[in-house]
Amino acid sequence: MYSASALVLATIPSPDRGVWHLGPIPIRAYALCIIAGIIVAIWWGERRWAARGGTKGTVVDVAVFAVPFGLVGGRLYHVVTDNQLYFGPGKNPLNALKIWDGGLGIWGAVALGAVGALIACRRKGIPLPAMADAIAPGIVTAQAIGRLGNYFNQELYGAHTTLPWGLEIYQRFNPENPDDLLNGVAVGHIPLPDSPVHPTFLYELIWNLGVAALVVWADRRFKLGHGRAFALYVAGYTAGRCWIELMRTDNANHILGLRVNVWTSILLFAGAVVYFVLAARRGPREAPETLVGKQPGEPPVPAPEPGTAEREHAEVSADNGDAAAPGAAPGTSPAGDEKKPDAQG
């Protein structure tokens, strides 16, 4: 038998660095994770868009606008909510432009990314809510992949813990710039005082993958449309982000005793739930023909008016001499005889 003193709790080690250099070129794990997440989101979004009846390649065209807008929006949100890092005595405002040093806020990325997507969707003549539904699970999966970048940067963790999955964090050294530990290296793996800590980035990664699975299941089960799958993603993500944010110990601005991101999560969760309920009144999922984008130089593709399909069917029936008499049940001839379906080979 093993004594209690012989039992050793397992922990998760941290990488010794988050940046490697290929000659003068820095290779940053954070950037690689962001890029990988974007690729996955576009690939999955393309598959879902085509499955809904949309034109292949449309998601890539939309991403050309949405991704740059999203990166700018994510950086703006970070700079605004953590402005003390870049402005004030002893700070260099130009550091706000150094996006490669980390610092992207998902709220700003989604908000301004949506503006870019709206511009692209209008140019293509397709509905933005349908596009949002198609890319929703890919976006939250991209967020999960992006959290791996926080692991390499050794950031966004929680308080000390004795749980088996505690994260070991180490002192990093940067001889060229002692204040720039993000580009430092852990020499000798000297643990920080709070080590091991809660790996809150890992909690969010797992939660995000669960939200992606929830959106896919609900979308298949209930045929969500008009932005409801995207609203479910927002509600699911913010519900998790709220409690995970409360576990984090990194410096953050507070309002009424709560971190700014907690308040943002609460407000977005409430807004997403309201939208999810109200959007159900718009009826079934968008018709596939409304998802076919126009070619360059063509005018926007107008959405069919309600009842168009029924009117076209009636016109074809009238041309064939099969117009139903007033009050006759659908599928009957003017004489009231039931029409038999054609034989199928």
Give a brief outline of the structure.
The chain is mostly helical and 345 residues long.
Secondary structure: elements and pairs:
Elements: E1 19-22, E2 25-28, H1 29-51, H2 58-81, H3 106-124, H4 128-153, H5 200-222, H6 228-247, E3 254-255, E4 258-259, H7 260-279, H8 308-319
Antiparallel strand pairs: 1-2, 3-4
Helix pairs in contact: 1-2, 1-4, 2-3, 4-5, 4-6, 5-6, 6-7
Strand coverage percent: under 5%
The largest sheet, given as strand count, sense and whether it forms a barrel, is: 2 strands, antiparallel
Order of SSEs: EEHHHHHHEEHH
Q: What is the multimeric organization of the chains shown? A: single chain
Please, what is the average pLDDT? 84
* Unreliable runs: 1-8, 308-345
Number of helices: 8
Shape: globular
Strand order of the largest sheet: 1-2
